[in-house]
Design goal:
By secondary structure, this protein is of the alpha+beta class. It has two domains: 4-232, P-loop containing nucleotide triphosphate hydrolases (Rossmann fold, 3-Layer(aba) Sandwich), CATH 3.40.50.300; 241-358, Nucleic acid-binding proteins (OB fold (Dihydrolipoamide Acetyltransferase, E2P), Beta Barrel), CATH 2.40.50. The protein is built from nine helices and 21 strands. The chain has helices at 42-50, 96-106, 111-124, 140-153, 170-187, 198-204, 222-227, 232-237, 347-358, and strands at 4-13, 16-26, 31-35, 57-62, 65-69, 72-73, 81-84, 158-162, 190-195, 207-212, 215-220, 242-249, 252-255, 260-262, 270-276, 281-285, 292-301, 306-312, 315-321, 334-339, 343-346. The protein has a six-stranded mixed β-sheet with strand order 7-8-9-3-10-11, with helices on both faces. It has a five-stranded antiparallel β-sheet with strand order 2-1-4-5-6, with helices on one face. Helix 2 crosses helix 3 (111-124), helix 2 (96-106) runs parallel beside helix 4 and helix 3 (111-124) crosses helix 4. The longest helix has 18 residues, at 170-187. It starts with a strand and ends with a helix. The protein binds adenosine-5'-triphosphate and magnesium ion. Magnesium ion (MG) is lined by residues 42-43, 86, 162.
Length: 359
């Protein structure tokens, strides 16, 4: 079992600084997800932890051992880490069984034990019936699962997974998500998981670290990062969001382009940006005291939800509602909207940040 401590790690490739002062500690047995847009530095961070890349400055510790930093550099094979990379590599000349058995064979594990551990790992990744196949006879998603089984079979204290489910179909992906999580819970290994799939991050992680441009934007458990985003980027990256600009004072928050206000439950005054989840906006027919008055413009029935657009003055606000609750509503109907748990960001800087995200 291993903890990981990353102290002020930076990484530059030539002129471009990909990681900026990355500092964090992953506790023993924790499931950490590094989440962020393409190119933000996730794989680079994993490669530095694994020892495939030297940090430009800073230190990496695994448990109480310094593995990268100053003059110290412990090579990857001596870091006791299991990993599955984005470009998963399986040995082309070995069948599935031998590929998965490889780390155990190297460690001179007794034959009977290899047999049972490989069978178990293959069952976990739903490949039991493919043990005798060669990689060339497998699909991309199946090869990816071979790589995952090979990483799991060695029971490492620390497992680094870089988008290990990216080539799987939605159903298999969902089931593997829970299986990986289950294995981690049972074995108590520390997992650092990289994905740009926010649902995957939410479902599996103890803690999500959201990165943009090599800088940590927020580091929090899933519910907190979703419900209390630290800045507009986080609100926008995780889930759906409606942004509304406004001006706050003690009477309320006047929303731009609507001619209407909502309650101000904070002490904030001046320009603000509200970020609210469209599923946290409740919509009722007709007018309601204290709610925003608007007109239902569009309603798309999606089975489990109805995705609606409501015009409020010059603004169009997205609302995700329960189809049952809007069974009597139709486009053109007057409706009232109540915003629940909006995040409120202060100042002009917040507004600029959103414009930057959107462009
Ligand atoms: N060996 C390298 N030489 C130069 N630039 C590199 C190198 N490796 C990565 N980069 C750059 O570093 C940045 C971060 O890359 P990285 O692979 O860590 O991103 P990522 O977050 O994993 O993205 P993705 O989600 O697309 O996999 C990118 O702009 C990339 O072009
Ligand atoms: Mg990557």
């Amino acid at each position: 079992m291993s903890s990981v401590t990353i102290k002020s790690v930076t990484k530059s490739f030539g002129e471009s600084q990909v990681l900026k002062e990355f500092t964090n500690t992953f506790a023993d047995g924790e499931f950490i997800t590094l989440l962020g847009p393409s190119g933000c530095g996730k794989t680079t961070m994993l490669r530095i932890i694994a020892g495939f890349e030297h940090p430009t400055s800073g230190e990496v510790w695994i448990g109480d051992q310094l593995v990268s930093g100053g003059k110290t550099f412990v090579p990857p094979e001596r870091r006791g880490i299991g990993m599955v990379f984005q470009s998963y590599a399986v040995w082309p000349h070995m069948n599935v069984f031998r590929n998965v058995a490889y780390p155990l064979t190297i460690a001179k594990t007794p034959k009977a034990e290899i047999e049972s551990r490989v069978r178990d790992a293959l069952a976990i990744v739903h490949l039991s019936q493919y043990a005798d196949r060669m990689p060339s006879q497998l699909s991309g998603g199946q090869q990816q699962r071979v790589a995952l089984a090979r990483a799991l079979v060695a029971k490492p204290g620390l497992l680094l997974l870089d988008e290990p489910l990216s080539n799987l179909d939605a159903k298999l992906r969902e089931s593997m998500r829970f299986e990986i999580k289950e294995i981690q819970r049972e074995t108590g290994i520390t997992v650092v998981y990289v994905t740009h799939d926010q649902t995957e991050a939410m479902a599996m992680s103890d803690r999500v670290i959201l990165i943009n441009n090599g800088v940590i934007q927020q580091d929090a458990p899933p519910a907190e990062i979703y419900n209390r985003p630290a800045n507009p980027f986080v609100a926008d990256f995780l889930g759906k969001v409606v942004f509304l600009k406004g001006t706050a004072d003690t009477d309320g928050i006047a929303l731009d382009g609507t001619g209407q206000s909502v309650a101000n439950r904070t002490g904030v005054s001046g320009p603000v940006l509200l970020a609210v989840r469209p599923e946290r906006i409740s919509m009722e027919a007709g007018k309601k005291e204290g709610a925003l008055a608007g007109t239902l413009e569009q309603m798309y029935y999606l089975g489990d939800t109805s995705d609606c657009r409501v015009r409020v003055g010059e603004q169009t606000i997205r609302v995700i509602a329960d189809p049952f609750d809007c069974r009597d509503l139709a486009p053109g109907d007057p409706v009232s909207l109540s915003l629940h748990q909006p995040a409120i960001f202060e100042g002009e800087a917040a507004l600029e940040e959103v414009l930057r995200i959107r462009t």
